[in-house]
Amino acid sequence: MTSRRLALLLPLLPALGLAACANPGLDLPPLPDASRSSYRLGPEDQLRVTVFNDPRLTGEFRVTDAGTIALPLIGSIQAAGRTTAEVERAVEQSMRDKNLFRDPSAAVEVMTYRPVFVLGQVERGGQFPYQPGMTTLTAIAVAGGFNYRALRDYVSLTRVTEEGRAQEFRASRQALLQPGDVVTVFERRF
After folding, report:
1. Residue among 190, 156, 154 nearest 172 (CA)
2. Which of residues 112, 131, 146 is at a domain's end?
3. Mind listing the pLDDT tens digit for each residue in 74-103?
4. Number of domains in the chain
């Protein structure tokens, strides 16, 4: 290499060195602030449906991959993308439509949420039960904590948006998780 080319490259070396040491995930968009909207159901959520005065319709039902729950005497009810209150109203309306009750009353509660997934530089990655109020840090703790190679300041969080597409964000340790989220802990660069 000629001295002239070397002289042109010398000012760029610090920038190239910093780029090689840059931490992964810094180019990801930040996770938007959590809105306090009601939880929307999704596939694999386990629901308890209670119909007042009719034990035949009361029971636990899992939301299918198609997003429905199948109730005896009523049939399939769309659950994915709805709140528990919206599913309650749909069950009551279906009972009215089928003339099962004149003034039906149903209650729906989530028994088991979809799991969250933790990958990357943790002791035991995998699938873990979601609990309301779970943060990225509590999910990492459930996965055995950070391993010695982990970047501990932020993580990648992949979430399915309301449009049904998976999108990856940069999230802090205190970011609130939603069922179905995938947390990836990056490996730090030396």
Report:
1. 154
2. 112
3. 999 999 999 999 999 999 999 999 998 888
4. 2
